[in-house]
């Protein structure tokens, strides 16, 4: 691939790892950021903001593909903001002649009563392609890795609370995936023309309940943990409880917790044949996230 590839969200949890991985494979990467002068990662920093449509023109000029890894979960108005940003980004890609967009969305059955967060992810999928650029969608559930919002919630709850009085969503099933495997899939689909315009589901090798995930983190950390599920903790109360014992952004945490009542398990396994990988198990992913956190201190 001779033309550059843009990564929108290059400084984020997944984006910075993706830029490193793409550069390592020889791809010319433009790392889009609102503050290119402060960027110290791999690739070529370029100025751009998905909430400032005119700024996208120069960033996307000459690019063959673009990754879209941004969201506004930290805002109470995230649904409107994400819709506007996705529509603007899709149009800018079409105007620039970009061949395809790759988007990391959220797992969840379309037949389920999806949370506002997951409904917004679905809407972003369609809005990115509204101007005619093919979109490759990878839908993931919990992504395990240092700095990830869902992972930080899990780790900090285990670290701070040996006894948890928990809401019913701790019994919801999910299919966590290591961030390294997410990045591997994102890189893998880029060189496969048949993935353009397709939607795939990605997950790790294990289906776990949130309570199981927390117990296994506690075992790895060598910490005691007793979980007592109760029926009275609503998502709103759960979010308040979260703010008392973690430093996770309150608004982002509340928006994410709303989704924890939805089962997020892979039903479509096609990606495993297209992009074969030896997927990390949950315990391996946890140990890797903890090691990265230690190294970052």
List keywords for this structure.
single chain; 297 residues; alpha/beta; Rossmann fold; seven-stranded parallel β-sheet; two-stranded parallel sheet; 11 helices; 41% helix; globular
What's the topology here?
Layout: E1 5-8, H1 15-24, E2 29-33, E3 44-47, H2 56-60, E4 65-68, H3 78-96, E5 100-106, H4 116-128, E6 135-140, E7 143-144, H5 149-160, E8 163-166, E9 173-174, E10 177-178, H6 179-190, E11 199-201, E12 208-209, H7 210-221, E13 226-229, H8 235-245, H9 250-257, H10 271-274, H11 282-296
Parallel strand pairs: 1-2, 1-4, 2-3, 4-5, 5-6, 6-11, 7-10, 8-13
Antiparallel strand pairs: 9-12
Helix pairs in contact: 1-6, 3-4, 5-7, 7-11, 8-9
Question: Describe it for me?
Answer:
With 297 residues, the chain is an alpha/beta fold. It has a domain at 5-143 and 177-203 and 263-279: NAD(P)-binding Rossmann-like Domain (Rossmann fold, 3-Layer(aba) Sandwich), CATH 3.40.50. Helices cover 41% and strands 16% of the residues. The chain is built from eleven helices and 13 strands. The chain has helices spanning 15-24, 56-60, 78-96, 116-128, 149-160, 179-190, 210-221, 235-245, 250-257, 271-274, 282-296; strands at residues 5-8, 29-33, 44-47, 65-68, 100-106, 135-140, 143-144, 163-166, 173-174, 177-178, 199-201, 208-209, 226-229. The strands form four sheets. Strands 3-2-1-4-5-6-11 form a seven-stranded parallel β-sheet, sandwiched between helices. It has a two-stranded parallel ribbon with strand order 7-10. α1 links the parallel β1 (5-8) and β2 (29-33). α1 packs across α6, α5 crosses α7 (210-221) and α8 crosses α9 (250-257). The longest helix is centred in the first third of the chain and has 19 residues, at 78-96. It is globular, with a radius of gyration of 19 Å. 45% of the residues are buried.
């Amino acid at each position: 691939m001779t033309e550059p590839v843009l990564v929108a969200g290059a400084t984020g949890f997944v984006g910075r790892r993706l830029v490193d991985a793409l550069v390592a494979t020889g791809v010319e990467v433009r790392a889009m950021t609102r503050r290119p002068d402060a960027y110290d990662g791999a690739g070529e920093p370029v100025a751009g903001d998905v909430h400032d449509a005119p700024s996208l023109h120069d960033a996307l000029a000459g690019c063959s593909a673009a990754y879209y890894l941004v969201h506004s979960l930290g805002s109470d108005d995230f649904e409107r903001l994400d819709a506007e940003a996705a529509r603007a980004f899709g149009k800018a890609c079409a105007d620039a002649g970009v061949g395809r967009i790759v988007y990391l969305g959220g797992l969840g059955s379309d037949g389920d009563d999806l949370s506002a967060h997951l409904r917004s992810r679905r809407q972003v999928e369609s809005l990115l392609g509204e101007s005619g650029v093919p979109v490759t969608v990878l839908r993931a559930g919990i992504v395990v890795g240092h700095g990830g919002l869902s992972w930080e919630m899990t780790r900090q709850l285990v670290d701070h609370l040996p006894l948890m009085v928990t809401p019913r969503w701790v019994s919801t099933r999910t299919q966590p995936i290591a961030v390294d495997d997410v990045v591997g899939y994102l890189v893998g689909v880029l060189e496969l023309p048949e993935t353009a315009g397709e939607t795939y589901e990605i997950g790790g090798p294990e289906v776990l309940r949130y309570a199981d995930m927390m117990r296994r983190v506690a075992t790895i950390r060598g910490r005691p943990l007793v979980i007592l599920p109760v029926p009275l903790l609503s998502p709103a109360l759960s979010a308040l409880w979260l703010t008392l014992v973690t430093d996770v952004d309150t608004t982002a945490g509340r928006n994410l917790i709303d989704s924890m009542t939805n089962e997020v398990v892979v039903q479509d396994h096609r990606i495993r044949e297209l992009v074969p990988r030896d997927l990390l198990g949950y315990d391996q992913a946890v140990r890797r996230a903890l090691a990265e956190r230690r190294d970052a201190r």
